[in-house]
Amino acid sequence: MKKFYFLVWYLFIVHGIFADQKVDEVWYDLIMMGKSIGYVHETVFNTKNGFATETQQKLTLRRGDTILSMEEISSVIENRLGQVVSFIREEKQGEMVRKTEGKTEGTYFNLTTTEGEIVTERKVKWEKRAIGPQKTKELLKNKIQNKEKEFEFLMFSVDYPNLVLPTKVTIDNTTNIELYGKKYAGNIISIEYINAGSLKSEMVVNQDGLLLKSYTKIGPITIETLLSDKSLQNRKLEQVTEIMESSFIKVGKIKNARNLKKAKWEMKFIDSLPTKIVSSSVQSVQKIGNGIFHISIDLDNSKIEQISSQELTLYLADSSYISTSDKEIQKLASSVHEKKDKSIIAEQLRQVVYNYIQKKNLSMGFASASQTVRSKEGDCTEHSVLLAALLRTSGIPSRVAVGVVYADQFLNQGNLMGYHMWTQGYINDRWVDLDASIDPKIPFDATHILFATAALESESGIEIQSEIFTYMNSIKLKKIE
């Protein structure tokens, strides 16, 4: 089932905005679903040509019976104009360590991602209008003092393919709040991350632009950050928050679900609507009423989908999450016997991945194909990225797909639709669905409802995760045919 590694991304974005150079150390308590899960620690330094913002995040979550501990350390260097000229970010989860570095060179940003001995490099156009955390803080401070109510800007974000996240800010009334016995005065502001699905945050900041408190709802999950102190560093969490079971969508019993080749579903939105509901070679969408859609899936009636040469290049590209240059991945891809028929190759690779990943568990955050080929461990996301890498290595364009799938039983609950990731390969002018987390003896079935797809070209994989924000805890599903 789909995991929520985007929480680390969200915290990086929010606290990248509001670090304060007037304070040596700023500490924030992280609250999820009303319970503490960790902390954020920020330090800002003056440099010769600008500022360095260093951020450490540590959090512990539970997925089912599995405890996940994650840490992220980042440093962002910006010049006096607010342009980010370099950054380093290191993500740690268990034995998995992933380091991303970026540095400007002329009109480009050179990006290098290191995971063990695997190094992936790419270049992106440097968008000089995208500003770093200290310039963002200064901008917000000036807008508050000038009593402006609304503005937009481009925020630097390492998580997006072009390193830019368009952001809209609305400044509201003043307020007084109390945090851990201390009283503060500030302004209420709303922030909308325009290219991040429906993600919005409500915050309170003081007159200097320092973040005091934030609140964000991501599907069924609520996240708060509260200004605190250094005592958070040595605090022991009494209870670890579960983040997976709350996202399940209850449906009635579906008989013989794994052999279902055709189905019609009614999807009703009880909250905000997505910008679009995707179709695919086997999935069509019809709007019935306000917030009500019928989704038809027919696995025996696959339609042609033409893609451009630019898209073809993207879906064959070597990236940090889907590596084609990794020798271990190349070796595994060469293990299939079929060399000509791409449909057979794809199915054989699906079987290879299922059998290769021996430890099928929820212990990984969102591991890359390179990490997975070595650990032989993970759930649907690890199966998906590894299969996507094997397909590309074999000359088959691929992407990952996110949606929901039916389960008779999962994590002690039954008759549910759970968030899920699988793989699609572009074969004979059609996107073919391939679920490597399911036993090879079991075919792909029509309980897989597609919400979004992505090539995973970024350094974080956030582009696929942000697409599902609108759906989480916002839909009801029922099978009508």
Question: How would you explain this protein's 3D organization?
Answer:
The protein has two domains: 6-243, no CATH class; 248-479, C8orf32 fold (Roll). It is 16% helix and 44% strand. The protein is built from eight helices and 25 strands. It has helices spanning 6-17, 133-145, 309-314, 327-333, 342-356, 369-375, 380-393, 462-466; strands spanning 26-32, 35-46, 50-63, 66-79, 84-93, 96-105, 108-115, 118-125, 150-156, 164-179, 182-193, 200-205, 211-218, 221-227, 249-250, 262-269, 283-289, 292-298, 359-360, 377-378, 398-410, 413-427, 430-434, 449-454, 475-479. The strands form four sheets. It has a 14-stranded antiparallel β-sheet, with helices on one face. Strands 15, 21, 22, 23 and 24 form a five-stranded antiparallel β-sheet that branches. Strand 12 (200-205) and strand 13 form a beta hairpin. Helix 4 packs across helix 7 and helix 6 crosses helix 7.
